[in-house]
Amino acid sequence: MGYGRGSAGAPSEAGNPEEQRAALLDAGCTRVFVDQSSGKGGAARPEFDACLAALSPGDVLVVVRLDRLTRSLPQLVALVGELRSRGVGFRSLHEGLDTTTPGGRLVFHVFAALSEFLRELLVEGTRDGLAAARARGQRLGRPPALSPEQVSQARAMLARPENSVASIARLLGVSRSTLYKHVPELGGRQIVPPEPHDEGRSGLDN
Questions:
Q1: Which of 33, 52, 71, 143 is deepest in the core (most CB within 10 A)?
Q2: Distance CA 150, CA 169 (A)
Q3: Which residue has the higher pLDDT, 187 or 206?
Q4: Do both 14 and 96 map to the same domain?
């Protein structure tokens, strides 16, 4: 079973959907799925989803090039691993990879190890970068919802009785709970909506 994906600006069969279809048919695929869009920015790939759903144990998914299937090594390793767990092989014509052969399986074991190595390097680099930032006294984590200037502005507006907490929060683009958090002098006041009056009761109990 073959899969192809269009790509604007790519040369020859690398990005031309119809040339990919022809190459996959020539390779012996009895059924070919082709997405016309490039898939950039997380665009939907309905033919890809249909292709995955149609694969059965013993099938082989064939692509013209690896980059027609995924855009990163971790994605490729994860997808091929998923196919293998379903009893489905994978073959890429351009790179000559075929997981139905011992040599092809060995290559993907190497790919998986390399992907894990790169992931560990990224984690280690991130950890070292955070440690260096802390050593420089740099603030980490999410920025405060209100800047010091906005807090001062909120305090000034709260001093005027015609300004409610809700209206100030709307003006600053934050929730009332955020406003209470950043303006301690409001402390003790709870953000609870007033209970509705029980209009069904009269002054006398039955």
A1: 33
A2: 10
A3: 187
A4: yes
